[in-house]
Write a structure and sequence with these properties.
About 55% of the residues lie in helices and about 15% in strands. By secondary structure, it is α+β, with helices and mostly antiparallel strands. It has helices at about 1-20, 25-55, 70-100, 120-125, 140, 145-150, 195-230, 235-270, 280-295, 315-330, 380-385, 390-400, 430-435; strands spanning about 105-110, 115-120, 160-165, 170-180, 185-190, 275-280, 300-305, 310-315, 340-345, 350-355, 405-410, 415-420. It is built from 13 helices and twelve strands. Strands 2-1-5-4-3 form a five-stranded antiparallel sheet, sandwiched between helices. Strands 7-9-10-12-11 form a five-stranded mixed sheet.
């Protein structure tokens, strides 16, 4: 504004001086010409400003007279606002990326409980399509009476445990609603399916252990009470010996159960190491000697062992796994049956330990459950032969710790074949070199 007034004053002074020299008409003409030039310059400046306004992100045009003092602070403010907006946008994107990386699901809901946003984890948990389901009520997406009652509460102090089934896949979720912002809601989902399974497994395990221990303890306590309550002359020496033998049998069963439980605990808690070259044939022969004693000459053993084939592993663990498969074959094969034991190299460079029997066989529906703790196909026969129901569970753990696979092939009345396939990476290089040289 000051520049404009100064310019008008200078043109007025010029007109007055020329008027005093050349006459008043000349003075007024010069003054009018000056005002016209100022109007034209202002129009040109306004035109340049109008073009700048259409692309306000560019710097304002230079040399626009009095408009410089007005547009410069406006442009600086716009530039600062633009930088602040970009920083907020980057922070928002970082927050979204962090939300996407969360192991838990997160959803934002409008005041009417319609979906505003969800991360990929929540979409997987609830079977959502973020694009199609946005704007739809969460009550129409999660069709569950329990969730409907939970969402209509005034406050949510405790989470909701919800069992869902999407595409045939059962899933257990823990949902927690919380208000945030102005009338909006945040819902967090956590998949606790595996935790629930582990809890059920723990509960079943405790119940099974209690059940397995109850029978021998009941027998022991019963015989102890009998021996204590009855006078010595009421029981013959033969009866007393028989009672003591039964008590010893139950005590041995409990010892075997505790030993297997400790073995399982050790396999699950100790770190897995590569180990050393193991002479597998020697381990198998030791297990065979023990199982032949258990068989008492009632079975025929057909043995095929590659003495040059060794693997890298833990000798104690492998001995337990090999012995368990042989022991099961003896227990479930009737007298006169044949048990075939094979330790051989596979065409792919791996190795296979296999036990085939001509026993009672296993039904197809029971095969997937054989490696469960305390699962028995024939409980009466297993108890009669001293089984704990943990042998195959131990064998499976040992196989997994050696990157091996336990395969089971069986049918009722057709016998069973249990195989442990070791990968080529587990085969000892020294054994492989010796085999190649031979």
């Amino acid at each position: 504004m000051t520049k404009t007034l100064v310019s008008i004053a200078l043109w007025a002074l010029s007109g007055w001086l020329l008027g005093a020299w050349l006459g008043a008409a000349t003075g007024w003409a010069v003054f009018a010409l000056g005002l016209l030039i100022m109007i034209l310059v202002s129009g040109l400046q306004l035109s340049r400003i109008a073009r700048w306004v259409r692309n306000i992100d560019d710097p304002p045009p230079p040399s626009i007279g009095p408009w410089d003092e007005i547009l410069a602070p406006i442009y600086r403010k716009l530039k600062q606002n633009r930088l602040d907006l970009q920083e907020r946008s980057r922070n928002f994107q970082r927050a979204l990326l962090a939300a996407e990386a969360l192991p838990d699901g997160a959803l934002t809901l409008a005041p009417d409980k319609s979906l505003l946003w969800c991360n990929q984890t929540a979409a997987e948990h609830l079977g959502l399509n973020p694009h199609q389901d946005r704007g739809h009520s969460i009550l129409n997406i999660i069709r569950s009476p329990e969730f409907a009652r939970y969402s209509r509460q005034d406050s949510w102090d405790k989470p909701l445990i919800l069992h869902l089934n999407h595409g045939g896949q059962a899933r257990t979720l823990m949902l927690h609603l919380a208000p945030y912002g102005v009338g909006q809601f945040l819902m967090v989902t956590r998949d606790i399916t595996q935790i629930e399974r582990l809890e059920n497994t723990r509960t079943d395990f405790v119940a099974n252990v209690s059940h397995e221990m109850r029978t021998p303890l009941t027998v022991l306590s019963g015989f102890v009470e009998t021996l204590l309550d009855l006078p010595e002359e009421a029981i013959s020496t033969a009866q007393r010996k028989h009672y003591l033998e039964l008590m010893a049998q139950q005590a041995h069963h409990m010892q075997a159960l505790v030993a297997d439980l400790l073995t399982l605990s050790s396999l699950e808690t100790t770190p897995n190491t590569a180990g050393d070259p193991v002479p597998v044939s020697a381990l198998i022969r030791t297990a065979l000697t023990q199982c032949q004693a258990l068989s008492k000459g009632q079975h025929q053993f057909d043995v095929h062992l590659d003495d040059t084939l060794q693997i890298i592993g833990q000798s104690k663990e492998l001995s337990s796994a090999f012995g368990n498969l042989l022991t099961n074959a003896v227990r479930y094969t009737p007298a006169g049956g044949t048990i075939t034991v094979t330790w051989a190299r596979l065409p792919d460079g791996g190795a296979c330990y296999q036990v085939h029997d001509t026993g009672i066989g296993i039904s197809t529906e029971d095969i997937p459950r054989l490696t469960e703790r305390f699962f028995r196909v024939d409980r009466g026969r297993s108890r009669a032969t001293g089984g704990t129901g943990l042998g195959l569970a131990i064998t499976k753990h040992v196989a997994l710790r050696h990157q091996a696979a336990l395969d089971i092939d069986s049918a009722p009345g057709a016998g069973s074949t249990f195989s442990i396939h070791f990968p080529g990476a587990r085969v000892s290089r020294q054994a492989a070199a010796a085999d190649h040289a031979a």
